[in-house]
């Protein structure tokens, strides 16, 4: 904690995702009228069979980690003393520009206590 501010940093595999993803549905042998009806007018194409299941290309709710954190923090149960309205979420580039160097090092190059000189 620094200057009454709590800093939380996450290491992510990637910061930005593609706009769409493959959404798996029921196996082809299962009655699937509701799945087919829901996705029949999908802007990314009709359902198709992949690996024995109905599948559809769907749009992601969030494309970046920043968007997800901003929207979901209020309902994430992060603690009653943390106000999501006062929270600032930085994207990858701004984090690298402004983050504490020691914190970044500890996150990205973790060492066990006996390995620290």
Short structural description:
The protein is of the alpha+beta class.
SSE blueprint and pairings:
Blueprint: E1 20-27, H1 33-39, E2 48-50, E3 53-59, H2 65-72, H3 92-98, H4 101-108
Antiparallel strand pairs: 1-3, 2-3
Keywords:
117 residues, three-stranded antiparallel beta sheet, 3 strands, elongated
Proportion of residues in helical segments: 25-40%
In DSSP terms (H or I, runs of 4 or more residues), the helix count works out at: 4
Mean pLDDT comes to 86
What low-confidence regions span 5 or more consecutive residues with pLDDT below 50?
none
Written as H for each helix and E for each strand, in order along the chain, the element string is EHEEHHH
Shape: elongated
Gap between N and C termini, in Å? 24 Å
Largest sheet at a glance? Answer: 3 strands, antiparallel
Strand residue percentage: 15-25%
Rounded to the nearest angstrom, the radius of gyration is 21 Å
Describe this entry's structure for a reader:
The structure is a single chain. This protein has a 3-stranded antiparallel β-sheet, with no helix packed on it. The chain is elongated. The model has no long low-confidence stretch (mean pLDDT 86). With 117 residues, it is α+β, with helices and mostly antiparallel strands. The relative contact order is 0.16. The protein contains 4 helices and 3 strands, in the order E-H-E-E-H-H-H.
């Amino acid at each position: 904690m620094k200057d009454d501010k709590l800093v939380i940093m996450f290491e992510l595999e990637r910061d930005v995702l593609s706009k769409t993803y493959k959404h798996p549905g029921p196996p082809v042998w299962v009655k699937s009228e509701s799945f087919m009806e829901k996705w029949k007018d999908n802007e990314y194409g009709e359902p198709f069979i992949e690996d024995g299941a109905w599948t559809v290309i769907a749009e992601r709710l969030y494309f970046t980690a920043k968007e997800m954190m901003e929207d979901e923090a209020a309902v994430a149960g992060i603690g009653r003393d943390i106000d999501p309205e006062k929270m600032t979420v930085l994207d990858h580039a701004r984090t690298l520009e402004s983050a504490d160097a020691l914190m970044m090092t500890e996150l990205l190059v973790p060492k066990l206590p006996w390995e620290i000189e």
